[in-house]
Write a structure and sequence with these properties.
Blueprint lengths: L1 H4 L29 E2 L3 H12 L1 H13 L3 E5 L2 H13 L1 E2 L3 E2 L1 H15 L1 E8 L6 E7 L4 E5 L6 E5 L7 E2 L6 E5 L16 H23 L2 E7 L3 H5 L1 H17 L12 E7 L9 H15 L14 H37 L5 E5 L4 H29 L1
Antiparallel strand pairs: 1-7, 2-13, 3-4, 5-6, 5-10, 7-8, 8-9, 11-12
Helix pairs in contact: 2-3, 3-5, 3-9, 6-9
């Protein structure tokens, strides 16, 4: 590859990270059409994951249910070396293994609609030193001169925009991008309005229960005669002091004794708290429908039949297969770079594990039914020939 030919043979050193922060070289930079990957919507999606636990749990479930994979190729030695590299590759500063990288990469893709990573070769260009998950804060996308290819740049507010020199080492994925747009759409798109209503209900519930749990009293003193009216101010002040003293005594039960027409009522006791079960469930149904996660996986005990649960599991399986297809391109690019570094020309296949045991049982039953149907068709064909 070109980025290895440019290096002198005697040069050795530490790997260089292209997407790292760089100082501003010049206060002015060329104004071109570009797509910044971090905007206000992305901060909103991060806040949604923090504010609504069911959204965060659903995205984590999707990431964990993706499962693992292995590489298969005709040469057993290449297959073993490539799988060993994927199991042990450094990810960031502490983690190892391609699964650690893909978990963060997919979580970033689902949350923001776009995910970026970088392959960092070693100083001598003979190994892949690390694979990095890149934050979207300073990454920008733009079209190349042919208006088809995408260029990844490093920039930001007040920073010079620098097109990264080795585009073949950058990993970029977009989730359902709109035509003509470089940035993908977040899986959480369309949920801010519904989540806002849900949070408003939760906040109102908290306020109402705080009022009910920490009740307030209204003490009313009504003077009965002229003498009471003349001393009403002093008596009202005395009643207030004694009532406050009785309420402050938390450890012991205190009695409040008064003379005259005094009434005590609980503030808000006559008001009925609105039932939140139905509106909360309606909002949660909208959220779960958008995330395509069966309710029982999120701990929601909604009434459902066994057939319905099986159909929901099938829908989730198709969603996971779609996300696996997106990750296939990322995995293939990492493997291609490793093979090129090693000077190996070898075809390979990415084989994912079955998502769960239920899928294996259903696949076995489907193969059995197909075999039985084929046998019956062959027997009927032989009878017709006779």
């Amino acid at each position: 590859m070109d980025f290895f030919k440019k290096k002198k043979k005697e040069e050795t050193g530490l790997p260089v990270l292209q997407t790292g922060m760089r100082e501003n070289v010049h206060p002015f930079y060329e104004i071109e059409r570009y797509t910044p990957l971090m905007d206000h919507e992305d901060r909103l999606y991060s806040a949604l994951r923090e504010a609504v636990p069911i959204i965060d749990a659903a995205l984590d479930k999707i990431v964990r249910l993706i499962g693992s994979f292995k590489i298969e190729c005709s040469k057993r030695s290449v297959e073993n070396d490539l799988n060993r590299f994927l199991r042990n590759v450094r990810v960031g500063g502490f983690n190892h293994g391609i699964n650690s990288f893909l978990s963060v990469y997919l979580s970033q893709l689902l949350t923001y609609g776009t995910a970026v990573g970088e392959i960092v070769p070693s100083g001598d260009g003979r190994e892949i030193y690390s694979i990095i998950n890149v934050p979207l804060k300073n990454i920008e996308l733009s079209y190349a001169d042919n208006k088809i290819d995408t260029l990844v740049s490093l920039g930001g507010i007040g920073k010079e925009r620098i097109v990264l020199p080795y585009q073949e080492l950058i990993l970029v994925s977009a989730l359902n991008p709109d035509p003509g747009c470089l940035k993908g759409n977040s899986l959480l798109k369309g949920l801010p309005f519904v989540s806002g209503i849900l949070l408003k209900i939760y906040n109102t519930l908290g306020v109402n229960w705080e009022r009910v749990g920490n009740i307030r009293f209204a003490v009313t003193y009504r003077p009965s005669g002229d003498g009471d009216r003349a001393m009403s101010r002093q008596r009202a002040s005395q009643i207030a002091q004694e009532w406050s003293k009785a309420m402050r005594d938390d450890k012991n039960v205190s009695d409040f004794v008064s003379v005259g027409d005094v009434s005590i009522k609980v503030i808000g006791a006559d008001n009925q708290i609105l039932d939140s079960e139905i509106p909360v469930r309606q909002m949660l149904e909208q959220i779960i429908a958008k995330l395509s996660i069966p309710p029982f996986l999120l701990g929601l005990s909604w009434s459902t039949t066994e057939r319905m649960s099986s159909q929901q599991a099938d829908i989730l399986t198709s969603e996971l297969e779609y996300y696996r297809g997106i990750l296939d391109g990322v995995i293939r690019k990492i493997c291609d770079v490793w093979l090129q570094i090693k000077g190996i020309s070898q075809d390979y296949e990415i084989v994912w594990n079955n998502i769960n045991l239920q899928d294996e049982v259903e696949l076995a039953q489907a193969r059995l039914y197909n075999a039985q149907a084929l046998k019956i068709e062959q027997e009927q064909g032989e009878e017709n020939d006779e």
